[in-house]
Write a structure and sequence with these properties.
With 262 residues, the chain is of the alpha/beta class. The protein folds into two domains: 218 residues, HUPs (Rossmann fold), CATH 3.40.50.620; 29 residues, no CATH class. It is 31% helix and 26% strand. The protein has seven helices and 13 strands. Strands 11-10-9-12-8-1-6-7-13 form a nine-stranded mixed beta sheet, sandwiched between helices. The protein has a two-stranded antiparallel sheet with strand order 2-5. α2 packs across α5 and α3 packs across α4. The N and C termini lie far apart (63 Å). The model has no long low-confidence stretch (mean pLDDT 88).
Amino acid sequence: MKVIVPIKQVYDRRTVRVSRSRGILDTREAEWMMNPGDRYALEEALKLKDEQGAHVVVLSMGPTQAEDILREALAMNADEAVLLTDEVFSDVDASTAVMVVGEAIKKMGDCELILTGRRAAGDGTGEFCPRLAQYLGLPHVLRASQLTLDDGKLTARRTLSSGYAMLEVNLPVVVSVDEGANRPRHPSLPGSIAAYDENTVAVWGAEDLGASCGMIAESSCTEVRTTFAGPERERGRTISSEATDAARELLAELRTRGLLPR
C-alpha cells in the first residue's frame, strides 16, 4: 500500500518580524521548518508503515532548500521523497499549487491514501485537502484522527465542534489529519545520517509533470496587490485598587468600551 504525504516548508514564526515601515513580514533572518500540522499526517503514515508495511512517499513544492524537510522526513523513516521545484512554481496561488501537487500524485500512480496536515502555519486556511481531493476526483475526510485501514476501507474519527463522528470510506481517499491526533516522532541519529548519506530526493520540474509554463501561469487567478501592517495593539491599563473597587472600575471600563450592557 502506498501512502503519499504532501508536506510544506514554512517559516518558523518565532523568527519572523513585522516591518511596519514597509507593511510586510520581515523574513530576512527567518528560519525554515516543516509545517507543524504536516507532522501529524506524516506520523499517521509512518504508523501505517510500522503496523501494515505501507510504503510512505513524501513530497513538497518549493525552492531547493525545501529538500531539508524532505530529508528530515526520510530520517523519520519515510521511504521516498520528491521535491517539486521550478522557477514557474515560485509565484503561484493556492489553486495552482493544488494542480502541481495533484499532477505529481497522478504521476506516482497506484496510491491508496493521501494524508495532509489540517492547515499550513501562518497563511493556511484548511482548504488544501478538499481542493486536492476535488482535483483528483477522490472522496476526502477532514480533521481525522484514529485512522484504521481494513479490507480496502478507511475508518476515521472526525473532530467536530460539538464532539466527533465516526466515518467509513472506500480507498483511495484524501485525509487531513487533525492536530493532536498523535505524537509525532523525532528523527533518529542513524536515520538523519542515512537521510543525507544514503537516500536521494527526486527533483521534478514542470516538464516532468507535463505542464507548460503557460498552463501554470494561466491557472493562477489570485494577485496580491498590496500588504500593510495592522494597527498596533493598545497598551493595557493596570487597575491596582482594592478588589471591590477594582471590580467596579473594570466593569465601568468594559461598559464604556461597549463590551458589557449598560
